[in-house]
Amino acid sequence: MAADRNRRTRHSRASRALALTVLGTALALPSMAMADASNGVLRVGTSFTCSSLNPYSTTQSSCLTALRLLYPSLGQAGIGSEMTPDLAESWSVDETGLIWTFKLKSGGQWSDGQPVTAKDAAFTITMLLAHADGPTARRARAIANVDTAVASDDQTLVVTFKQPTANAVGRLAQLIIVPEHIWAPLAEGDGAALSSFANDQPVAGGAFTLARFEPDQAIIMQPNPNYYGTPTALKGVGIQFFGDSTAMVSALLNDQIDVLTPLPVTSVDAVTKAGLNVANFPGLRFHNLILNSSENQTAFPEIRDPKVREAFAHAIDRAKIADVAYLGYAVPGDAMVPKVTGEWSNPAIVPETFDLERANALLDEAGYAKGADGVRVANGHPMRYKVLIPANVEGAEGLRALDIVTADFKQIGVELVPEQGDSSTVSDAIVGPDNTYASSTIAQWGWIPQMDPDFILSVLLCKQVGGLNESGYCNPEYDELYDAQASEIDPAKRQPIVWKMQEITQRDRPYIVTVQQNNIEAYSPKWTGFVEDPIGFLNYTSNRTFVNLRPAE
Amino acid sequence: MRRWRLPPPSPKPPSSMTRFSYLARKIGIVAFGIFATITLNFFLFRVLPGDAVASMARVPGGSAELKATLLAEFGLDKPLMAQYGDYLYQLMRGNLGVSYSSLRPVTEDVIKAVGNTVPMTLLGITIAVLVGISTGVLAAYKHGTATDTVITNVATIVYSAPTQWIAIMLVLAFSAYLPASGASDPFSFETEFWPLFVDRLRHIVLPSLTLATACFGQYTLVTRSSVLATLGEDYVGAAKAMGFPAGRILFSYAIPNALIPIVTLIALSMGTIMGGSVVIETVFSWPGIGRAMYEAITDRNYPLLQGALLVITVSVIVFNLLADIINMKIDPRIVE
What we know:
The complex is a heterodimer of chains A (553) and B (336).
Chain A: H1 2-28, E1 41-46, H2 61-70, E2 75-77, E3 83-85, E4 88-93, E5 99-104, H3 118-130, E6 146-153, E7 156-161, H4 168-173, H5 180-183, H6 192-196, E8 208-214, E9 218-223, E10 236-241, H7 245-253, E11 259-261, H8 268-273, E12 277-291, H9 306-314, H10 318-325, E13 330-332, H11 356-365, E14 377-378, E15 381-382, E16 384-390, H12 391-410, E17 415-421, H13 423-431, E18 442-447, H14 454-458, H15 476-486, H16 491-508, E19 511-523, E20 527-528, H17 544-547, E21 550-551
Parallel strand pairs in A: 1-10, 1-11, 16-17, 16-18
Antiparallel strand pairs in A: 2-3, 4-5, 5-7, 6-7, 8-9, 9-10, 11-19, 12-18, 12-19, 13-19, 14-15, 20-21
Chain B: H1 16-46, H2 64-73, H3 80-92, H4 106-141, H5 146-160, H6 163-174, H7 193-231, H8 234-241, H9 246-257, H10 259-275, H11 278-283, H12 289-299, H13 302-330
């Protein structure tokens, strides 16, 4: 009996040990069937999450990037006004500048086997027009000024504009063309179903089709065998969404992802030392001080004084902000239209020199003398201003930048009092009750313009007061120029108008651009063909960052 | 030899009427608590400055018109009390609304997120409870020794360490061996049960371990304190005087009488099991309710926040009620 018990005990211990060994080995081994460069599956990690693949409900850049890979587009954006043909192999405009004709490629199929035709493109535009004030409002910019869209045959799309429209092809190329046979029933009535449709198993017709989508976790795509364009070298694409940058960088270092975007600047050294590639190149994103330009702001009228604004512009040590706050991964900024947009950036505009002596002299000239505490007095009150900053988007770098500005402004007798909030809070505080802009003075924020200047120039329009315009700036001359450039279809004639608008904003300074941030992205040396795109790897206007990558030899 | 038996330290049990009125009072408090939660959840985020659509409309193509369209789409252009009325009406019909970021029904998102959270937190809390109670009992039993000092100090340190720090330390230490993001390998197309199971197991280790590390200290300290208190009771002294074995005194008399604060603490932990941990789920990109709340707060996604908080607070209230009932069974004097 005792021997039996001992044997059973030994057997039990051995079983437990075996079970623990198997479990330990299983846990220690990398996951089976893990994809990597060796089987051509590109794994991208990002902190920008994606909650929905419905093009009419999402505004998240990572979702829009995935949608660009899944759905056909007329063209893919390049640098400046360059537009690469995609579903449209060619296009032309009539002599009135109103009627654009697109010749589409044939042979493409949706993932359910139906052909991709011009009727789908015409339906998409017509549907957007019909519901632009409701369910499709998020995508309405692409069809601005469009009157009608007709498919004259399966391969010909004719789009008629109400007025000549600059960058018409670029705008229409932003369209996510959806299959009519799937979306037409959703567009009936008030079209509410268009934005509430889950679309978690999209019928796709772009370079890829969807393999799996887990909201805010990952999107996995596989090549579309019936793609109308050149087949991609990739065997698949996965975009994984991370909630924490440390875990994301660890995933890259441990070969769990191939591309990381954006790479936190504090991780550049670790990633470089690990033998991974770090791409550091000019991006579109800029940061700026926003100066309240609204007449409704009466408590601190000196903020609208041109001399004060000029003094502020000279009291910003942009080089120090770029080197210290952004650890060298930024350059001094000048205008709202970044240099990387090429032809649209006005070369005459350069960053104001950092010159505290001149800034002090300008404020002295304006009659704002320093008080006993070193703070200047303007209109009977100290020049002490609250600076709103959305810490969730400006980040640690933005807060450090504001510290530098605050220290330098102190030397010109201006006291800044930073006040942090999230983007919703700051947005609300800037605009104020009833969009009056009555109570804010200065804020620090930034923008990510597009390669075409139309969007970023539109931010300061009078009609954007209460919308995108955080300065409350309203200048009829600027608005007229905007309309002129928006209807000029000849880029050569449009360029001087765009440059003139930049000169006006440089003169009036509703924004003082501080730095132009670089894009920092990391990728594994197992891959080649990495495109340094000013928009970033997650580019919702072009699929080129993905489709150009291929496993290194 | 005559075996001595100590009389249990329980007086005459209360009448069934007393127990009924105690329970009725508790259930009344629970009902009020749930209604207060529903109301508070609604108003809490709306009193903050900033609206839900400001960030959504700050995109290319954004405009004051888009803001107005989105406000109307989400019913945020109505007076606050009208929105509250709509919310209560829909809630009574079991409708938590739609998520602003995905336009999916919140109920679906919350159920899925809770389903992901529970296995991870259940594992973490179970480890924490087992380790915490064991070390707490050991520390109390070895009171005043080096063992007690080591256990108490380690428990105090991990209890006071920020959870985010613990999580990041574990990521840095183990991410070469174990995945540190997500609930499964998103790039795997495995369909077999065993590889899928192993993959899930590998992913759950670090977040559960973080939770266990962050939580076990409080169980240790509460258990130690509670067991120490009962070890000082007269009946324990009497048991010792009668020569009872130390193990019997500990497990038959001290621990059972030290259970009330421990049960209460475990009941409070049920809130964590249902509600997850915002910090842990964010660091490990765990697709649970905590991360959903983090994203919802960032996006001012009111319906998702309301739904998630409702599930968490209701579960805490209900588990507290269960703890009260269990405590009433353990010590019937409570009802008096």
